[in-house]
UniProtKB/TrEMBL annotation:
<protein>
    <submittedName>
        <fullName>Trans-resveratrol di-O-methyltransferase-like</fullName>
    </submittedName>
</protein>
<dbReference type="InterPro" id="IPR001077">
    <property type="entry name" value="COMT_C"/>
</dbReference>
<feature type="domain" description="O-methyltransferase C-terminal">
    <location>
        <begin position="5"/>
        <end position="215"/>
    </location>
</feature>
<dbReference type="GO" id="GO:0032259">
    <property type="term" value="P:methylation"/>
</dbReference>
<keyword id="KW-0489">Methyltransferase</keyword>
<dbReference type="GO" id="GO:0008171">
    <property type="term" value="F:O-methyltransferase activity"/>
</dbReference>
<dbReference type="InterPro" id="IPR016461">
    <property type="entry name" value="COMT-like"/>
</dbReference>
<dbReference type="GO" id="GO:0008757">
    <property type="term" value="F:S-adenosylmethionine-dependent methyltransferase activity"/>
</dbReference>
<keyword id="KW-0949">S-adenosyl-L-methionine</keyword>
<dbReference type="InterPro" id="IPR029063">
    <property type="entry name" value="SAM-dependent_MTases_sf"/>
</dbReference>
<keyword id="KW-0808">Transferase</keyword>
<dbReference type="Pfam" id="PF00891">
    <property type="entry name" value="Methyltransf_2"/>
</dbReference>
């Protein structure tokens, strides 16, 4: 995973096609393609994501309980092996949680888990629920792809009056006054460009993609390095 960084300066001087990444320049395939072809890599990738997001999930479940009040159903888009959805179900047993990810990914959800598992692409369809939950998903994609996914999210949820919303866990660059957090945000921004062709966004960038996808309002709640963003139809 470290080798592609050696090609970053070369990559920045090239006129490359949309979606081409430093990672792909090094290995000849995207990280997503490698995950599709290599089940061992998929397991390692999911474990890394789970470890990275565990602190954020703990903070969210302890400090943002009101965000989940009145909900009956939640779909975790890009939910990987179900770690986040299972944690939400344990904290809020009244919420029926669906783990939604690519078919080869959701096979890693443990048997007997208290969640429903659905395979598919978030670009084509998202199962209906009161809330669409996405943790560390949007930063993998450029603005155009994010708008496509958010439009699918809007189709999946009810009106704001009926409790519909999207909950996004991501970095909001510029939202912190701490130097260490700002530096970390910049590093993650570079990492997303290298591995995925995505980026970490400032608030005005988030606002634009929400508006372009047809949403009317949003609210940001800081959670340390990352933030919880509620997006309303």
């Amino acid at each position: 995973m470290a080798t592609p960084w050696h090609n970053l300066s070369t990559f920045c001087r090239l006129d490359h096609k949309k979606g081409f990444t430093v990672y792909e320049m090094e290995y000849g395939k995207s990280l997503w393609k490698l995950s599709e072809e290599n089940s061992e890599f998929t397991v390692l990738f999911n474990e890394t994501m789970d470890g990275d997001g565990r602190v954020t999930m703990k903070a969210m479940l302890e400090e943002c309980t009101e965000k989940f009040e009145g909900l009956n159903t939640l779909v975790d888009v890009g939910g990987g092996d179900g770690t986040s959805a299972i944690a939400i179900t344990k904290a809020f047993p009244h919420i029926k949680c669906i783990v939604y990810d690519l078919p080869h990914v959701v096979t890693n959800v443990p048997q007997g888990s208290p969640v429903e598992v659905v395979g598919g692409s978030m670009f084509d369809h998202i199962p209906k629920a009161d809330v669409v939950f996405m943790k560390l998903v949007m930063h993998d994609w450029d603005d155009e792809d994010c708008v496509k996914v958010l439009k699918q999210c809007k189709e999946a949820i009810p009106s704001r009056e009926d409790g519909g919303k999207v909950i996004i866990i991501e970095i909001v660059r510029g939202f912190s006054n701490l130097d260490l957090e700002r530096e970390t945000h910049i590093f993650f921004d570079l990492a997303m460009m290298v591995y995925m062709g995505g980026k970490e966004r400032e608030e005005h960038e988030w606002k634009k993609i929400f508006t372009d996808a047809g949403f009317t309002d949003y609210k940001i709640t800081p959670l340390g390095l990352r933030s919880l963003i509620e997006v309303f139809p």
